[in-house]
Design a protein that fits this description.
The structure is a homodimer.
Chain A lengths: L9 H4 L3 E4 L3 E2 L5 E2 L3 E7 L9 E5 L7 H7 L12 E5 L27 H16 L6 E5 L1 H12 L6 E5 L7 H15 L16 H14 L3 H5 L11 H14 L3 H13 L10 H6 L4 E4 L10 H8 L6 E2 L18 H14 L3
Parallel strand pairs in A: 5-6, 5-7, 7-8, 8-9, 9-10
Antiparallel strand pairs in A: 1-4, 2-3, 4-6
Chain lengths: ~350, ~350
């Protein structure tokens, strides 16, 4: 039985369409009989169908943060110039996910889905639904960066430019452990009941502890030291947790978070090349800007730089933001100007 | 009722004495009627009683790691030259702690103890038991650094030199959150039973998850990226967790860990000066080497440097170690030479 969850609705995520791409056979075996992807677009696809940009989404995220923060005529992701498509990844609650799937694959029965399955699904959607064969840019943050890398390695001819923000092509051992610790907060809540809860509210304790781990790792030590939560109009820091991180995560579906985490942990483009990461990254022909955040606690600049050095003609563009990984939320007024500068330059680069 | 725990014994911690310092009245109210401190010494106290060095202990740690790694004739902490005293802090399992306290303050009834209470207790023990009025050096890592700072601020005339390693004088908001996440792993284990378990084995799930959080924060991202657990003869990384971190923590007492964590979270020398950290650090007359570890995930160099700049005549001596905070275990062969170099220079400095 799937469960009701009002968070995954138009009320919280504005306009989007849910498009079926049919049966999706999965790399780990099994399939999603009727895979449905939630899609949002901005701007108009031109007649040549060659002005499209793809946005991928992150762990716990949807297209909505991109609408609120990243996309608009004042930004590099400008709907007056491009046809911009945001596709919500499988498991994020808007696309097919454990909490909303048909009974045979709902909840604890949801199959294992990889980043690579997402990219197969997204390519099919773009081609069959929109007739798009090539993308001017693929851009995404965190797990969206993992998807961006998978796109550029799997479909090099289809990706002209790539901008992975705050994420890696091959997940690190440290991130695997961090994600496992996030998962454990859910697994060890008795309300989780091996994935067969009646409502996400049954798992509110686990989701709250999960939010608290994001407080430790999602921001930087400098963010806390400088007491920047005060600038966000929360004080004391407990109010920041209770007013921001806890409500952000506790409305979400536990099985959906676990499905995304499983993908995150195993993201690895080197699966295309028998484990040879340099060879996999060497396949990329997209003009690529690798954009880590300087204060990121779990996708540190050096891990992103090591990968960037294997990508021909790529550039490392470090985002300075004391918020750390969750700079992605675009809270700091200095964040979007940096993103726009780099994406603007990338989009202006001939390929 | 206290509980039996064979880990806190001579079998695991070698020679030590347990010395009563009598009743310890606590800053938060209440008291420990018969406060007993576990003490180890190396070398001989000279007639003038002026060749003493004090070692303080860290969260989950005892004097034993200092015996195994830091103290010896080949080290700066040389028992041929100094009388070296290691005092186990309250709650660490060897000194008075929730699991071994008399019934009226055992387990969930253990009173709140602050770092400052520890230093009052340690000063009394040194003075009354050994007749030591002044220390050539106070040195400790992590929570031991917190105690070192408290010593230097509270008893400036008694501390000639100070070496806080990988710790801060005023705990940071980020570390409060990290510690709270560690605590939560214990609190939400049903076996914890509000602190009234029958054996630490009842809380093995919580202690295991607690160990896993140390895997995320205790080492550095670089440690994991470089797969350095292989150099420690563990492979794959799960074996490192199961063979090292899990057995390290699961033998410990949950209430003891929580008592130490409560102290860690609230360590703050600025309590002496109405919240003015600069004024508190300005009281220090000890020659001080502040020694953070470059890859520390939760006591970053910059936090330690900010404090160091308020200490007259102090020096910042950064330890390079890819292990991060748990460099303190002295696993890397390059670690102790750095410690010995800095402590040797500090001890050779006229004061």
């Amino acid at each position: 039985m799937s469960v009701e969850n009002p968070y995954y609705s138009h009320e919280f995520h504005g306009d989007y369409d849910v498009v079926s791409i049919g049966r999706l056979d999965l790399e780990e075996g099994g399939s999603i009989p009727d895979c449905r992807l939630a899609v949002t677009t901005w701007g108009e696809l031109n007649e040549a169908r060659d002005n499209a940009i793809l946005i991928t989404t992150w762990y716990s995220g949807t297209h909505q943060i991109w609408r609120d923060v990243y996309v608009g005529p004042e930004h590099a992701l400008n709907p007056d110039l491009f046809f911009i498509v945001a596709i919500n990844h499988v498991g994020n609650g808007l696309s097919t996910s454990p909490h909303n799937a048909p009974d045979e694959i709902a909840m604890s029965r949801f199959p294992k889905v990889r980043i690579s399955d997402d990219i197969v699904a997204q390519e099919r959607l773009l081609r069959e639904h929109f007739g798009i064969e090539q993308l001017q840019l693929v851009v995404g943050g965190s797990m969206g960066a993992q998807q961006t890398y998978e796109w550029a390695v799997r479909f090099p001819d289809k990706v002209l430019r790539a901008a992975p923000i705050a994420g890696t092509a091959q997940n690190t051992p440290h991130d695997f452990l961090f994600t496992e610790a996030l998962n454990a907060q859910i697994w060890y809540d008795p309300g989780w009941n091996d994935g067969e809860y009646k409502s996400n509210a049954d798992v509110v304790d686990g989701l709250t502890r999960h939010a608290h781990l994001w407080a430790v790792m999602g921001f930087s030590t400098k963010f806390w030291k400088q007491e920047l939560w005060r600038a966000l109009e929360f004080d004391p820091k407990d109010a920041f947790l209770q007013g921001f991180l806890e409500p952000y995560f506790t409305v979400m579906d536990p099985n959906d978070l676990l499905a995304m985490a499983w993908k995150w942990q195993r993201g690895d483009v080197a699966r295309h090349t028998g484990g040879d990461l340099a060879a996999a990254l060497g396949r990329i022909t997209a003009k690529t800007f690798v954009m880590p955040t300087d204060e990121d606690m779990f996708f540190p600049v050096r891990d992103c730089k090591t990968e960037q050095e294997h990508i021909k003609g790529s550039r490392l563009r470090v985002i300075n933001d004391v918020l750390g990984h969750l700079a992605l939320f675009g809270i700091a007024p200095t964040y979007m100007p940096q993103i726009d500068q780099h994406l603007g330059e990338l989009l202006a680069t001939d390929v």
